[in-house]
Specification:
The structure holds two protein chains of two kinds. Chain A has ten helices and 16 strands. By secondary structure, chain A is α/β, with parallel strands linked by helices. Chain A folds into two domains: about 1-90, Elongation Factor Tu (Ef-tu), domain 3 (Beta Barrel), CATH 2.40.30.10; about 100-260, Rossmann fold (3-Layer(aba) Sandwich), CATH 3.40.50. The two termini of chain A are about 30 Å apart. Chain B is α/β, with parallel strands linked by helices. In chain B, strands 3-2-1-4-16 form a five-stranded parallel sheet. The N and C termini of chain B lie far apart (about 50 Å). Classes of the chains: A alpha/beta, B alpha/beta. The interface between A and B is large, with 41 and 39 residues.
């Protein structure tokens, strides 16, 4: 059992939990993930580490409510416990030696993009952050990004905050204006990562994406998280979650990602009638 | 000495009717009654040279325990079993006895061998139902050993070391101890309550089991030895990533590895009504492969409601690597065997879901280096099998987490940990390994045998340090 020391709703569907897990906190690095089970019979959910505090022994996770399991997790309060918390899993992001990076985050993916931006900033790298959300109400971590970015662009689909449009527009504009990035790191919905990768490919800028496919054990046993990367089968849990965005077969990943969509939607609606109005 | 029962046939095992059991997850075989057990035990000739014992990877004194059953001393029989096996109720159910103890039984020459596995199961079940005495906690010897993986190999080593007084901690990556006994082997073949009881027995002996601990990630082997004071480590982390065939369509929705399918059904309990675990509602399922895991996946799929379930295997019936009993059970339950058949591609619909599997017929050619006749494609024999789900059960390759985080740990070109002969010593002092992590995917009892040998070697190592 792992105690929740802090719970904060970042927006109507995104929640942050700070969880006491000293051994995981001691080892966690940006880009790695954990697996959490809210209750004894819950599903195992992989979530990327959003932050960690080695001294206080806590790990922060940020998640969006999409199905019954994330809903169960969302129902737990500070002081209560999650049943299982395993990690840190996956390979940490390779950030050493980078001098200038564009960090692109979309929606709840910003929760994972933030620790990367923060770590790069700590390493003395020039960080340009481009973060996109559907609308003003869904904007998260603005102050945090501000604190670690040399340049910050906020985009919303409807223009209700920041600039109107998608993240690829300012990214392309920056590249065209002569910004020379060692790397672009994109974390968000598959469709966003796909288009960021297509954009950067035109300019031959190395692009890393963080994949979050369906997973069960997360340790290299079930094979559910397989992806095609450069024509080879890779397992996100042990080979990733970071991959070269120019090599990932996003269309296949998107198709696999919605395998249980009906199941999730059904479970969510059965579980809670209120939620279905605010999610999606 | 009582007269031997000279019936050439063994006492049949009562079991659920195939057409009933293929719709439920309750145990298939129901077990002997005491009368059946005594009768069967009397078929044992109590051979002086005990060929059966030499066929047992953990070396159970088989004639001795069967003798106790014949004398109606069931608890005495259990004591004989538990002296050698940490998990008798499990072994009695899942061991391939026909190629081990029973394969060497003298009664098998002119008739059927003694039902050793059935008797082992009976004795272990009898003990569980009748005996509530807590196991004696051994006198601590002051030494600490860490075991990685709470599967059959790790649990066996833990039991043997705990009996010698070692303080044993087992680190398990999943949220539940048991390894393949809980995520892989289905409820109808091995009820989880039985596994749990065996594990509780180890805990009562003082073994600590720490779940949710992925060694190689949260702690390394070096940290266990240097910071946590373990004098020896036994790596029993099991098999790893599922293999796929590399044919087109393997990423379609509805293609599972057997590991994923069975984990969803067993560990994550998709078989229970109202379960929260998503799983495909299949109409027609093709399981590719012919081993025990393939049989488990096929029989689970049938029970999950699939109308047609096929085993697709590229060789013939005689070459199926699965236990004969599993194959017979599968056939009785209506699993269709598509033998000498190999998939060449998986066909998808416009939504990316499996809608069929294109196969080619095979014929057996000359024997290959393994001695088995090599399957060869028949020209122009392609056909489409109408399925919506495909389960790949063609083996695994070793997990990289430990070898990639343990400097100096030698592995072979497949990624399996290299050990020095039988005792399981790796290239690192004090670090032992066994089970699937060393051999690649094998059986529960071989993994248990490795755990036993390693426990003995670790005891020798620590005592002579």
């Amino acid at each position: 059992m792992f105690k929740i020391v802090e719970r904060k709703e970042l927006n109507p569907t995104v929640t942050k939990l700070v969880i006491e897990a000293p051994l995981v906190a001691k080892k966690a690095q940006a880009g790695q993930f954990i697996i959490v089970r809210a209750n004894e019979d819950s599903e195992r959910i992989p979530l990327t580490v959003a932050d960690y505090d080695r001294e206080n022994g806590t790990v922060t996770i940020i998640f969006q409510v999409v199905g019954e399991s994330t809903m169960e997790l969302n129902e737990l309060n500070a002081g209560e416990c999650v049943h299982d918390f395993v990690g840190p899993l996956g390979v940490a992001s390779h950030l050493d030696g980078l001098k200038k990076v564009a960090v692109v985050g979309g929606g709840v993916g910003c929760a994972i993009a933030y620790p990367i931006a923060k770590r790069l900033h700590e390493l003395g790298c020039e960080v340009h952050s481009i973060v996109g959300f559907r609308n003003k109400d869904l904007v998260i971590l603005e102050d945090e990004f501000k604190a670690c970015s040399d340049k910050l662009v906020i985009m919303t689909d409807d223009g209700s905050y920041g600039e109107k449009g998608v993240v690829t527009a300012p990214l392309e504009a920056l590249i065209q204006s002569g910004e020379q990035y060692d790397e672009v790191i994109a974390i968000g919905p598959l469709i966003m990562m796909k288009f960021v990768s297509l954009t950067t490919k035109k300019y031959d800028v190395k692009t890393i994406v963080s994949m979050n496919p369906i997973m069960i054990d997360g340790t290299g046993m079930c094979g559910g998280c397989r992806l095609t990367v450069g024509g080879e089968t890779k397992f996100a849990c042990v080979d990733g979650p970071d991959f070269d965005g120019h090599l990932v077969d996003f269309d296949e990943a998107m198709q696999r990602g919605n395998m249980y969509k009906e199941f999730e939607t059904h479970a969510r609606e059965e579980h809670c009638n209120l939620m279905k109005k605010t999610v999606e | 000495m009582a007269l031997h029962n000279m019936d050439p046939k063994r006492c049949p095992m009562p079991s659920q009717d195939p057409n009933v059991r293929n719709k439920n997850f309750e145990e298939v075989a129901l077990g002997y009654t005491p009368e059946m057990a005594i009768n069967e035990a009397k078929r044992c000739l109590d051979c002086k040279n005990k060929p059966c014992q030499s066929g047992c990877p953990v070396g159970i004194d088989i004639p001795a325990f069967i003798g106790k059953v014949a004398e109606e001393d069931f608890e005495g029989a259990y004591q004989v079993l538990s002296a050698s096996s940490a998990l008798p109720a499990v072994c009695g159910r899942v061991c391939p006895q026909e190629t081990q103890c029973e394969g060497k039984c003298v009664r098998g020459i002119k008739g059927e061998s003694v039902g050793i596995g059935r008797l082992e199961r009976f004795v272990a079940d009898w003990h569980r139902e009748h005996n509530n005495t807590a196991p004696t906690v051994p006198e601590p010897n002051g030494h600490k050993v860490a075991i990685i993986g709470a599967g059959p190999s790790g649990l066996t080593a833990a039991g043997d070391l705990a009996k010698l007084g070692y303080k044993v901690t087992v680190y398990e990556a999943l949220h539940l101890a048991g390894g393949v006994l809980v995520y892989g082997i289905p409820e109808f073949r091995l009820p989880k309550a039985i596994v749990q009881q065996e594990i509780d027995g180890l805990k009562a002996m003082g073994v600590d089991i720490e779940t949710n601990m992925v060694i190689g990630k949260v702690l390394t082997i070096d940290e266990l030895m240097e910071d946590y004071g373990y004098e020896a480590v036994y790596i029993a982390s099991g098999a790893g990533l599922p293999r796929f065939m590399g044919i087109p369509g393997e990423s379609l929705k509805g293609v599972y590895s057997a590991n994923e399918y069975l984990t969803r059904v067993n560990l994550m309990k998709a078989y229970q009504p109202g379960s929260k675990t998503p799983i495909q509602k299949s109409h027609s399922v093709a399981v590719v492969g012919g081993g025990n895991v393939a049989m488990d996946a096929a029989r689970s799929a049938k029970r999950m409601g699939a109308e047609n379930v096929y085993i697709v295997y590229r060789r013939g019936m005689d070459e199926l690597p699965a236990r004969k009993e599993e194959v017979e059970h599968a056939e009785e339950e209506g699993i269709i065997f598509k033998l000498l058949t190999n998939p060449v591609q998986i066909l998808g619909d416009e939504n990316g879901c499996v809608k069929g599997m294109e196969c080619v017929e095979m014929e057996l050619g000359e024997p290959d280096e393994s001695g088995r006749r090599r399957p060869v494609e028949k020209a122009n024999s392609n056909f489409v099998l109408d399925v919506d789900t495909m389960i790949m059960s063609i083996g695994t390759s070793p997990n990289p987490l430990i070898r990639s985080t343990t400097p100096g740990l030698e592995t072979n070109r497949h990624g399996c940990i290299v050990t020095n002969g039988d005792d399981g010593l790796t290239s690192r002092e004090g670090v032992y390994a066994g089970g699937d992590a060393v051999t690649g995917a094998a059986t529960v009892i071989l993994a248990m045998g490795a755990g036993k040998h390693a426990a003995k070697a670790i005891d020798n190592y620590i005592r002579n340090k």
